[in-house]
TrEMBL record:
The keyword 4Fe-4S does not apply. InterPro entries: MFS_dom, MFS_STP/MST-like_plant, MFS_sugar_transport-like, MFS_trans_sf, STP/PLT_plant, Sugar/inositol_transpt, Sugar_transporter_CS. It is found in: Membrane. Gene3D superfamilies: MFS general substrate transporter like domains. This is Major facilitator superfamily (MFS) profile domain-containing protein. Coiled coil: none annotated. It is a multi-pass membrane protein. Residues 26-478 form the Major facilitator superfamily (MFS) profile domain. Belongs to the major facilitator superfamily. Phosphate:H(+) symporter (TC 2.A.1.9) family.
Length: 512
């Protein structure tokens, strides 16, 4: 498959190259880092809906659930201890992302990926063997440390390795792995919940070791990226690696641009301070806004708590877990659609279409829940057709996220940063993502109890806000080589006032 030679850039540069088997396999292996993140998202919601798990670790929630079987559907799972079990991971991931930034910049992407797999493996051992809540929390912290390293390094690795024409599709492999991990977790939760004796939750939690081992083995076999090798002074090795992944010998133009970017990067003593410079204002803005908005779609809370949510809405135990499996399948299929379309339709189109789709589904879900439960939360079992309608709209909502804000939330931030601030900026992206994942996960059940069906209106409101921001302020980035991305901001109606025409002056002639 030819690549890299037929798309004109604002500066006229075109890099030769093909989508080689080596780069395809390399990106697929690297993207396996998403398995650990996805598995955790899926598994945590499943085990918190298993009665034996609740009875052992969260007996107050278990008793409340049993006592309020027919009433107060909105509040039956509301427990800060229970949500801390789920959300503590994301606080740990936030903190580890800053350490991972230094490791990724100084030692390369590969060591950071290996560290993430090993830390996640340790966490799976703690959780699978847990005998009290303290062990669960310690395990979750190790899992979070692993996810912080993986989410810092994998999107960068993919964006730096992929030919620019196919960068979107290959980078979305990370999100595809996340969705596969979620689906695998949902299926395993459904199967393990049926084990007699009530110890299936141990297999669910301990099973996190499997994606961790896959990620460790894959990371150990990967070469580092040419960008990272150049950044650490290994120019000859970087050039040979670039030839291998591009499938051509004529890589001088791209290689020289990478070297030039590295020389600029080498002059930066403190990339964190550099982020605050005026010329990086657009990138910093989207490093914060995109992960912030991604969490306010409400998708992660649905995936965390899908079984709990369906159970709260009146589904039985098996039906709740099966509904989570169905949404997991939709998630995977829709992510494939994003892989196929992202480099053809562009980032902006998918952001806006997905946002509209999610907004409409949130409104529909609000109406259905309001009609059935009202504000009191009292209800008999849902009729099958009504339950099916709820699942249908949630599935359409999941599909909208899976081909827009899900993968693009990782793709766009990883491709817009220049090399000199890339590791630091990606750390900002990951830390903001984890901070708001923690925040939303921690308050979701309390919000459901307090806002009732209005919770979905809350997320729908934010879909409107984020779609307006994308429409007005995000330029299209498809088909632009990663080291030439600065040019898209210089022609944008708003950002051109911040981005210097050269390294020292603004468009108005002032100093940066």
């Amino acid at each position: 498959m030819a690549g890299g030679g037929d798309m004109g850039l604002s500066n006229g540069k075109k890099y030769p190259g093909k989508l080689t088997r080596k780069v395809l396999v390399t990106c697929i292996v690297a993207a396996m880092g998403g398995l650990i993140f996805g598995y955790d998202i899926g598994i945590s919601g499943g085990v918190t809906s298993m009665a034996p798990f609740l009875e052992k670790f969260f007996p107050a929630v278990y008793r409340k659930q049993a006592r309020d079987a027919g009433t107060n559907q909105y509040c039956k799972f509301n427990s800060q201890t229970l949500t801390m079990f789920t959300s503590s991971l994301y606080l740990a991931a936030l903190l580890s992302s800053f350490v991972a930034s230094a490791v990724t910049r100084k030692y390369g992407r590969k060591p950071s990926m290996l560290s993430g797999g090993i830390l996640f493996l340790i966490g799976s051992a703690f959780n699978g063997a847990a005998v009290n809540v303290a062990m669960l929390i310690v395990g979750r912290i190790f899992l979070g440390l692993g996810i912080g390293f993986a989410n810092q390094s994998v999107p960068l690795y993919l964006s730096e390795t992929a030919p620019y024409k196919y960068r979107g599709a290959l980078n979305i492999g990370f999100q595809m792995s996340i969705t596969i991990g979620i689906l695998a977790a949902n299926v395993l939760n459904f199967l393990f919940a049926k084990i007699e004796g009530g110890w299936g939750w141990r297999l669910s939690l301990g099973g996190a070791a499997v994606p961790a081992l896959i990620f460790i083995a894959g990371s150990a076999c990967l070469p580092d990226t040419p960008n990272s090798l150049i950044e650490r002074g290994n120019h000859e090795q970087a050039k040979e690696q670039l030839k291998k992944i591009r499938g051509v010998d004529s890589v001088d133009r791209e290689f020289n641009d990478l070297v030039a970017a590295s020389e600029v990067s080498g002059k930066v003593d403190n990339p964190w301070a550099n982020l605050l410079q005026r010329k990086y204002r657009p990138q910093l803005t989207f490093a914060v806004l995109i992960p912030f908005f991604q969490q306010l779609t409400g998708m992660n809370v649905i995936m965390f708590y899908a079984p709990v949510l369906f159970k709260t809405l009146g589904f039985g135990d098996d039906a709740a877990l099966m509904s989570a499996v169905i949404t997991g399948i939709v998630n995977c299929v829709a992510t494939l659609a994003s892989i196929v379309s992202v480099d053809r339709l562009g980032r902006r189109f998918l952001f806006l279409e997905g946002g509209t789709q999610m907004f409409l589904c949130q409104v529909a879900t609000t109406v259905l829940i309001a009609l059935k439960f009202g504000t009191s939360g009292n209800s008999v079992d849902l009729p099958k057709w009504y339950a099916g309608l709820v699942v249908f709209f949630i599935c359409v909502y999941v599909a909208g996220f899976a081909w827009s804000w899900g993968p693009l939330g990782w793709l766009v931030p990883s491709e817009i940063f220049p090399l000199e601030i890339r590791s630091a900026a990606q750390s900002i992206n990951v830390s903001v993502n984890m901070l708001f994942t923690f925040f939303i996960a921690q308050i979701f059940l309390a919000m459901l109890c307090g806002l009732k069906f209005g919770l979905f209106i809350f997320f729908a409101f934010w879909m409107v806000v984020m779609s307006i921001v994308i429409k007005l302020f995000l330029p299209e980035t498809k088909g632009i080589p990663i080291e030439e991305m600065a040019g898209v901001w210089k022609t944008h109606w708003f950002w051109k006032r911040y981005v210097a025409e050269d390294e020292n002056t603004t468009p108005n002639g002032g100093m940066v």
